[in-house]
């Protein structure tokens, strides 16, 4: 898969994201990663492939991981870069890199694995060919 080196999403850190130590709480990084993936899909104009009402399938998070590199503080702008790492039979793997805009510091690396499931039984099902093709472009 190709990597788009331009930021696809940016977030300004709100006070609600800050923990008692004055930086973004660890759990919020996952929100940033999920938001970045949705923005990536929107940017590629393929978000409809991931809406159960238009695609006939749903996607569940199977795995989420974050590696922390540098803290993020209130009012920082965080830039996110997303890559489709792997398209499997029924799963998708995304990598997400988060950077602090003011100094370019690499703040976190994230990984999300989504599994495609049927609407009637929530069991893994093959990723539709149209979705597979749309993700492979670019």
TrEMBL record:
Keyword Chaperone belongs to the record: no
Keywords: Hydrolase
CDD domains linked to this entry: 4HBT
GO MF annotations in UniProt: fatty acyl-CoA hydrolase activity
Superkingdom of the organism of origin: Bacteria
Pfam family, one: 4HBT_2
Cited PANTHER family: 4-HYDROXYBENZOYL-COA THIOESTERASE FAMILY MEMBER, NOVEL THIOESTERASE SUPERFAMILY DOMAIN AND SAPOSIN A-TYPE DOMAIN CONTAINING PROTEIN (0610012H03RIK)
Family indicated by similarity: Belongs to the 4-hydroxybenzoyl-CoA thioesterase family.
NCBIfam families named among the record's database cross-references: YbgC/FadM family acyl-CoA thioesterase (TIGR00051)
Protein name in UniProt: Acyl-CoA thioester hydrolase
Biological source species: Rhizobium chutanense
């Amino acid at each position: 898969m190709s990597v788009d080196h331009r930021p696809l999403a940016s977030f300004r850190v709100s006070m609600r994201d800050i923990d008692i130590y004055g930086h973004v709480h660890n759990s919020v990084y996952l929100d940033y990663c999920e938001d970045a993936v949705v923005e990536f899909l929107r940017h590629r104009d393929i978000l409809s492939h991931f809406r159960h009402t238009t695609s006939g399938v749903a996607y569940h998070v199977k795995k989420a991981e974050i590696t922390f590199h540098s803290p993020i503080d209130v009012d920082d702008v965080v830039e996110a870069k997303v890559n489709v790492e792997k398209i499997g039979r029924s799963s998708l793997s995304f990598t997400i890199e988060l950077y602090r805009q003011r100094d370019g510091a690499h703040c976190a690396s994230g990984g999300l694995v989504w599994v495609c499931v049927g609407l009637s039984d929530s069991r893994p099902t093959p990723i539709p060919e149209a979705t597979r093709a749309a993700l492979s472009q670019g």
